[in-house]
């Protein structure tokens, strides 16, 4: 940190956001994605509603937000990609911290490969809504359409390719002319569509039932598994643990505040997840369908409902456009992490790196489109291992390795207790909760708790 070499030319010419507002929109764009419109509603459905939502909100506040601040702070302090950020910020002789950055770059690569396959399904449903609308089709036929799509790798791969093509097209433009410009176009559209869908849901018979399901906690339904899922999801939904927020933070100008923007991003992300639930559950209940369909909730259950609604074709078009836009503004942040690494660390040209990396990610996505088991594996590996492990080390690094002086600058305009509270949460609460989550993934937690010694100690048996 201390040696004063002037940075190479390409690092001096790094882009930056035009304003704090642009950063908030782009970062919210990264956070708001399939995680909010597809995954949050279906896991809420599976884990029984209100109580799950309650734990999720708690996790966002206790683990998500402090870590979000940490990532933005790291990026803004270093003005580099995740690998470079750890190289610049780790003390002499502790360069091994850059491994956390490397893991982030690999995660970006892997996550985008299957994320784009799901986004491709959404995109194909946008077109289906226009050219072969669901209206009038019997439920079994609609259900079969999804099975057909996911068992025709050829078609899936084409949509996956088209989606990656758009993603590359945006990222190639760089920070201002790519990420910022498109976030400013897509995010307002996304907000508009979701508000419209919510207003529509408010006119349906199932509105009150839907809201009750979403907001009335029944804690007897809460299982330990649901708690861990909620915790894990707070990570995924805020794009944490792999350096997306480090990268976006790295394009912030020095004088910019990070606390209010981070809070805004967390609030927007949570709001959109809840609004998505408020749009989906009422119409599901209106037709007496089950909310617990799992991953097929928006691709199988919803189209059945759309087929029966007045103006179902319009609603279905808007819904899948929403899903596609949400996925696109997240996909560009995943790709940006990988691209920023090549541009910042190796000095390569963005115009060449972006399509090449994009194409390689497309190729890695192909097996996910062909084999469900491959898809499940990469999904499991990244959401349950890479992101939490990444988040765990990012938290420890920020709390215990990063110079205090560097952290305090970002809190200069706030009272001291805010800084202390944040630092404590990042250093102790987040890592402990994340560690529990990781141990549980490997079944280690179960093993520990089934040990006769511990059971005796706790007085079980
Ligand atoms: N936050 C995105 C979503 O909710 C997913 C994502 C994860 C994006 C990690 C970037 C990094 O869909």
Structure description:
The chain has 461 residues and is mainly alpha-helical. 78% of the residues lie in helices and 0% in strands. The protein has a single domain (9-380), classed as Hydantoin permease. It contains 21 helices and no strands. It is globular, with a radius of gyration of 22 Å. Phenylalanine is lined by residues 30-31, 33-36, 111, 236-237, 239, 242, 244, 330, 333-334.
Beta percentage is under 5%
Overall SS class: mainly alpha
Order of helices and strands: HHHHHHHHHHHHHHHHHHHHH
Number of strands: 0
CATH superfamily: Hydantoin permease
The biggest sheet amounts to:
none
* First-to-last CA distance: 56 Å
Number of helices: 21
Radius of gyration: 22 Å
- Total separate domains: 1
Taken from the alpha-carbon principal axes, the silhouette is: globular
Q: Which regions have little confidence, pLDDT < 50, spanning 5+ residues?
A: none
Whole-number mean pLDDT: 92
CATH class type: Mainly Alpha
Bound molecules: phenylalanine
CATH architectural name = Orthogonal Bundle
State the share of residues found in helices, binned by percent.
over 70%
CATH topology: Hydantoin permease
